[in-house]
Write a structure and sequence with these properties.
Elements lengths: L2 H10 L17 E9 L5 E12 L2 E9 L5 E12 L2 E9 L5 E12 L2 E9 L5 E11 L2 E9 L5 E12 L2 E9 L5 E12 L2 E9 L5 E12 L2 E9 L5 E10 L11
Antiparallel strand pairs: 1-2, 1-16, 2-3, 3-4, 4-5, 5-6, 6-7, 7-8, 8-9, 9-10, 10-11, 11-12, 12-13, 13-14, 14-15, 15-16
Protein backbone atom coordinates (compact mmCIF):
# COMPACT_ATOMS: atom_id res chain seq x y z
CA UNK A 1 0.00 0.00 0.00
CA UNK A 2 1.10 3.52 -0.67
CA UNK A 3 2.07 6.09 1.92
CA UNK A 4 -1.01 8.17 1.03
CA UNK A 5 -3.23 5.44 2.44
CA UNK A 6 -1.48 5.59 5.80
CA UNK A 7 -1.49 9.38 5.79
CA UNK A 8 -5.26 9.09 5.54
CA UNK A 9 -5.30 6.64 8.42
CA UNK A 10 -3.15 9.05 10.44
CA UNK A 11 -5.68 11.85 10.08
CA UNK A 12 -8.86 9.79 10.48
CA UNK A 13 -7.52 8.00 13.55
CA UNK A 14 -6.65 11.19 15.40
CA UNK A 15 -8.68 11.92 18.52
CA UNK A 16 -11.33 14.50 17.77
CA UNK A 17 -9.48 17.38 19.42
CA UNK A 18 -6.78 17.15 16.76
CA UNK A 19 -9.01 16.55 13.78
CA UNK A 20 -10.41 19.22 11.51
CA UNK A 21 -13.98 19.93 12.51
CA UNK A 22 -13.92 18.22 15.88
CA UNK A 23 -16.64 15.64 16.51
CA UNK A 24 -19.58 14.62 18.63
CA UNK A 25 -19.10 14.24 22.35
CA UNK A 26 -18.49 10.69 23.55
CA UNK A 27 -18.21 9.23 27.03
CA UNK A 28 -14.65 9.60 28.20
CA UNK A 29 -13.93 6.09 29.46
CA UNK A 30 -13.35 4.89 25.87
CA UNK A 31 -14.81 3.57 22.66
CA UNK A 32 -13.85 1.21 19.86
CA UNK A 33 -14.29 1.58 16.10
CA UNK A 34 -14.29 -0.84 13.18
CA UNK A 35 -14.36 0.32 9.55
CA UNK A 36 -14.62 -1.74 6.36
CA UNK A 37 -14.31 -0.49 2.78
CA UNK A 38 -14.87 -2.54 -0.37
CA UNK A 39 -13.87 -1.23 -3.80
CA UNK A 40 -15.54 -1.79 -7.19
CA UNK A 41 -13.42 -4.93 -7.75
CA UNK A 42 -14.37 -6.45 -4.44
CA UNK A 43 -11.09 -5.71 -2.68
CA UNK A 44 -11.60 -4.92 1.00
CA UNK A 45 -9.64 -2.87 3.54
CA UNK A 46 -10.33 -2.65 7.26
CA UNK A 47 -9.51 -0.46 10.24
CA UNK A 48 -9.86 -1.46 13.88
CA UNK A 49 -9.05 0.92 16.67
CA UNK A 50 -9.88 2.10 20.15
CA UNK A 51 -9.63 5.25 22.24
CA UNK A 52 -9.22 5.07 26.00
CA UNK A 53 -9.13 7.73 28.69
CA UNK A 54 -5.81 7.28 30.45
CA UNK A 55 -6.29 10.04 33.03
CA UNK A 56 -8.03 13.37 33.62
CA UNK A 57 -7.93 15.21 30.31
CA UNK A 58 -5.84 12.50 28.62
CA UNK A 59 -6.77 9.99 25.88
CA UNK A 60 -4.80 7.35 23.98
CA UNK A 61 -5.76 6.01 20.55
CA UNK A 62 -4.39 2.97 18.77
CA UNK A 63 -5.48 1.19 15.63
CA UNK A 64 -4.53 -1.11 12.77
CA UNK A 65 -5.40 -0.68 9.09
CA UNK A 66 -5.23 -3.73 6.82
CA UNK A 67 -5.28 -3.51 3.03
CA UNK A 68 -6.77 -5.92 0.48
CA UNK A 69 -3.50 -7.87 0.22
CA UNK A 70 -3.21 -8.38 3.96
CA UNK A 71 -0.52 -5.76 4.49
CA UNK A 72 -1.14 -3.73 7.62
CA UNK A 73 -0.11 -0.48 9.23
CA UNK A 74 -0.60 0.83 12.72
CA UNK A 75 -1.44 4.11 14.42
CA UNK A 76 -0.75 5.24 17.97
CA UNK A 77 -1.54 8.67 19.35
CA UNK A 78 -2.37 10.69 22.42
CA UNK A 79 -4.45 13.78 23.19
CA UNK A 80 -3.98 15.85 26.34
CA UNK A 81 -5.79 18.83 27.75
CA UNK A 82 -3.13 21.46 28.32
CA UNK A 83 -5.34 24.20 29.73
CA UNK A 84 -8.78 25.74 29.64
CA UNK A 85 -9.94 25.39 26.03
CA UNK A 86 -6.58 24.02 24.88
CA UNK A 87 -5.54 20.55 23.69
CA UNK A 88 -2.39 19.01 22.25
CA UNK A 89 -2.19 15.86 20.11
CA UNK A 90 0.57 13.71 18.71
CA UNK A 91 0.60 10.44 16.86
CA UNK A 92 2.58 8.06 14.67
CA UNK A 93 1.39 6.00 11.70
CA UNK A 94 3.63 3.14 10.57
CA UNK A 95 3.21 1.45 7.21
CA UNK A 96 3.72 -2.21 6.30
CA UNK A 97 7.38 -1.59 5.39
CA UNK A 98 8.14 0.05 8.71
CA UNK A 99 8.16 3.62 7.38
CA UNK A 100 6.59 6.04 9.85
CA UNK A 101 4.84 9.39 9.64
CA UNK A 102 4.09 11.60 12.60
CA UNK A 103 1.51 14.23 13.52
CA UNK A 104 1.84 16.92 16.14
CA UNK A 105 -0.69 19.65 16.68
CA UNK A 106 -2.79 21.74 19.01
CA UNK A 107 -6.38 22.96 19.18
CA UNK A 108 -7.19 26.17 21.05
CA UNK A 109 -10.41 28.04 21.71
CA UNK A 110 -9.62 31.55 20.57
CA UNK A 111 -13.07 33.02 21.28
CA UNK A 112 -16.51 31.72 22.30
CA UNK A 113 -17.52 29.26 19.57
CA UNK A 114 -14.22 29.61 17.69
CA UNK A 115 -11.46 26.98 17.61
CA UNK A 116 -8.11 27.04 15.86
CA UNK A 117 -6.13 23.92 14.98
CA UNK A 118 -2.51 23.95 13.90
CA UNK A 119 -0.61 20.79 13.11
CA UNK A 120 2.31 19.29 11.24
CA UNK A 121 2.47 15.94 9.44
CA UNK A 122 6.01 14.71 8.85
CA UNK A 123 6.56 11.90 6.36
CA UNK A 124 9.12 9.07 6.38
CA UNK A 125 11.57 11.17 4.35
CA UNK A 126 11.39 14.07 6.81
CA UNK A 127 9.29 16.35 4.60
CA UNK A 128 6.57 18.21 6.50
CA UNK A 129 3.06 19.41 5.67
CA UNK A 130 1.41 22.07 7.83
CA UNK A 131 -2.29 22.44 8.59
CA UNK A 132 -3.93 25.63 9.84
CA UNK A 133 -7.68 25.52 10.42
CA UNK A 134 -10.36 27.65 12.07
CA UNK A 135 -13.81 26.32 13.00
CA UNK A 136 -16.69 28.55 14.07
CA UNK A 137 -19.81 27.27 15.83
CA UNK A 138 -23.11 29.15 16.00
CA UNK A 139 -26.66 27.97 16.78
CA UNK A 140 -27.56 25.61 13.95
CA UNK A 141 -24.38 26.04 11.94
CA UNK A 142 -20.69 25.20 11.74
CA UNK A 143 -18.13 26.77 9.38
CA UNK A 144 -14.59 25.48 8.80
CA UNK A 145 -11.79 27.07 6.80
CA UNK A 146 -8.28 25.74 6.47
CA UNK A 147 -4.98 25.88 4.63
CA UNK A 148 -2.61 22.97 3.90
CA UNK A 149 0.97 23.89 3.02
CA UNK A 150 3.26 21.27 1.54
CA UNK A 151 7.02 20.82 2.00
CA UNK A 152 7.75 22.88 -1.14
CA UNK A 153 5.72 25.82 0.16
CA UNK A 154 2.78 25.33 -2.19
CA UNK A 155 -0.56 25.56 -0.42
CA UNK A 156 -4.16 24.60 -0.91
CA UNK A 157 -7.30 25.71 0.88
CA UNK A 158 -10.56 24.10 1.93
CA UNK A 159 -13.83 25.20 3.48
CA UNK A 160 -16.93 23.48 4.77
CA UNK A 161 -20.29 24.81 5.92
CA UNK A 162 -22.99 22.81 7.73
CA UNK A 163 -26.37 24.37 8.45
CA UNK A 164 -29.50 23.04 10.14
CA UNK A 165 -32.29 23.56 7.62
CA UNK A 166 -35.12 22.06 9.71
CA UNK A 167 -35.49 19.91 12.84
CA UNK A 168 -33.48 16.75 12.09
CA UNK A 169 -32.18 18.02 8.73
CA UNK A 170 -28.76 19.43 7.84
CA UNK A 171 -27.15 20.65 4.62
CA UNK A 172 -23.42 20.63 3.94
CA UNK A 173 -21.38 22.26 1.20
CA UNK A 174 -17.66 22.48 0.86
CA UNK A 175 -14.80 23.04 -1.53
CA UNK A 176 -11.07 22.34 -1.81
CA UNK A 177 -8.66 24.31 -4.01
CA UNK A 178 -5.21 23.02 -4.90
CA UNK A 179 -1.98 24.98 -5.41
CA UNK A 180 -2.71 25.26 -9.15
CA UNK A 181 -6.14 26.80 -8.52
CA UNK A 182 -8.19 23.76 -9.48
CA UNK A 183 -11.25 23.37 -7.26
CA UNK A 184 -13.45 20.45 -6.26
CA UNK A 185 -16.76 20.82 -4.45
CA UNK A 186 -19.14 18.77 -2.30
CA UNK A 187 -22.81 19.29 -1.57
CA UNK A 188 -24.98 17.02 0.56
CA UNK A 189 -27.84 16.65 2.99
CA UNK A 190 -28.40 14.63 6.15
CA UNK A 191 -31.95 13.91 7.32
CA UNK A 192 -33.33 12.03 10.30
CA UNK A 193 -35.67 9.52 8.71
CA UNK A 194 -36.73 7.77 11.93
CA UNK A 195 -35.80 7.83 15.63
CA UNK A 196 -32.10 6.91 15.77
CA UNK A 197 -31.70 6.77 11.97
CA UNK A 198 -30.10 9.33 9.67
CA UNK A 199 -29.66 9.30 5.89
CA UNK A 200 -26.91 11.20 4.07
CA UNK A 201 -26.78 11.89 0.35
CA UNK A 202 -24.14 13.96 -1.37
CA UNK A 203 -22.39 14.78 -4.63
CA UNK A 204 -18.71 15.57 -5.14
CA UNK A 205 -17.63 17.42 -8.31
CA UNK A 206 -14.03 17.45 -9.46
CA UNK A 207 -12.15 20.26 -11.22
CA UNK A 208 -12.94 18.71 -14.60
CA UNK A 209 -16.67 18.56 -13.87
CA UNK A 210 -16.87 14.80 -13.27
CA UNK A 211 -19.12 13.86 -10.36
CA UNK A 212 -19.37 11.10 -7.81
CA UNK A 213 -22.07 10.41 -5.26
CA UNK A 214 -22.26 9.11 -1.70
CA UNK A 215 -25.22 7.61 0.10
CA UNK A 216 -25.03 6.55 3.74
CA UNK A 217 -27.36 5.43 6.52
CA UNK A 218 -26.38 5.81 10.18
CA UNK A 219 -28.23 3.98 12.95
CA UNK A 220 -28.15 4.25 16.72
CA UNK A 221 -28.43 0.59 17.65
CA UNK A 222 -28.69 1.17 21.38
CA UNK A 223 -26.99 3.01 24.22
CA UNK A 224 -23.40 3.62 23.16
CA UNK A 225 -23.67 1.74 19.86
CA UNK A 226 -23.68 3.24 16.36
CA UNK A 227 -23.33 1.77 12.88
CA UNK A 228 -23.31 3.14 9.35
CA UNK A 229 -23.37 1.69 5.85
CA UNK A 230 -22.75 3.58 2.65
CA UNK A 231 -22.09 3.42 -1.07
CA UNK A 232 -19.74 5.64 -3.06
CA UNK A 233 -20.24 5.78 -6.83
CA UNK A 234 -17.62 7.28 -9.14
CA UNK A 235 -18.09 9.21 -12.39
CA UNK A 236 -17.80 6.04 -14.48
CA UNK A 237 -20.56 4.32 -12.51
CA UNK A 238 -18.32 1.97 -10.54
CA UNK A 239 -19.23 1.82 -6.86
CA UNK A 240 -17.75 0.72 -3.56
CA UNK A 241 -19.21 0.09 -0.13
CA UNK A 242 -18.15 1.15 3.34
CA UNK A 243 -19.33 0.40 6.86
CA UNK A 244 -18.49 1.71 10.31
CA UNK A 245 -19.28 0.50 13.83
CA UNK A 246 -18.57 2.45 17.01
CA UNK A 247 -19.17 1.08 20.50
CA UNK A 248 -18.70 2.93 23.77
CA UNK A 249 -16.78 0.72 26.18
CA UNK A 250 -17.95 2.43 29.34
CA UNK A 251 -19.53 5.66 30.49
CA UNK A 252 -18.01 8.51 32.40
CA UNK A 253 -18.83 11.96 33.64
CA UNK A 254 -16.38 13.73 31.35
CA UNK A 255 -16.61 13.96 27.57
CA UNK A 256 -13.94 13.60 24.95
CA UNK A 257 -12.37 16.72 23.38
CA UNK A 258 -15.13 18.40 21.41
CA UNK A 259 -14.34 21.89 20.10
Amino acid sequence: MKFAFFALVLITALPVAARPGGGAARPAAGWSTTRNSTGPRGNTGTYQGSTTRTGPGAWATQGTATGPRGQSGTYQGTTNRTGRGAWSSQGTATGPRGNSSTYQGSTTRTAPGTWNTQGTVTGPNGNSTNINQTTNYAPGSRTTQGTVTGPNGNSGTYQNNTTRTAPGSWSTNGSATGPNGNTGTYQGNTTRTAPGTWNTQGTATGPNGNTGTVQQTTNRNGPGSWSSQGTVTGPNGNSGNCSNNTTVNATGNETSPNP
